[in-house]
Amino acid sequence: MKQVPYHGNPGNACALACYTMAAQYLLPEKHFTFEQLAKITDWKKGYVVWGFKLWKYLMDQGIHVTDYDTFDYDGWVKEGVKGLKRTTPPKEFKFYLENTYDLEAESKLAKPMLEHPNFTYIRRKPTWDDVVSEFKKSGICDVTLNGRLLHDRRGFTVHRVIVIDISDKEVVIHDPNSDWSGKYRHVPLPRFRDIFEAMEEPELCRYFLS
Description:
7-stranded mixed sheet, 7 strands
């Protein structure tokens, strides 16, 4: 099982927590902190963090990012929020619109990330087989799923978790939740897979060193 530093979620910042954990795991000598990376992203507490600016920073440090998703990033860069809306399920788009500090401004940050030599974008819906395949490679993976389902609640949130281990019976994750209780959380494999596959458009990312 991978030994990965854990960080909780201080306010709609599950993605930022996952990026912090991935960076600390891959480059421990850099001594990255959540606060340091939050400053780089100009994070506003209570709002979600998109990876564009921070991913570019981490890629400049030598980290590679492989991203599976269905976003039309080029359309978002060219058309702004309208371009994002066109390829995002309504439920997810509503969440992003309501929980991003300035969604239109994010459009301008995507292009440098897309053009970075350490970034690989696979534009399609990731399958569970993709998750298993990427997990078996070097580095560390995270996935997005419905956080409400993961926490046995009604409703919908886009929630990102770090995948620590996958066995025949369970998935072990770092779940960046608000009470910091999600360290090495064990979830039965069938349940975790169902939650992941229930997302209309889940995301899968792998962070690694060459």
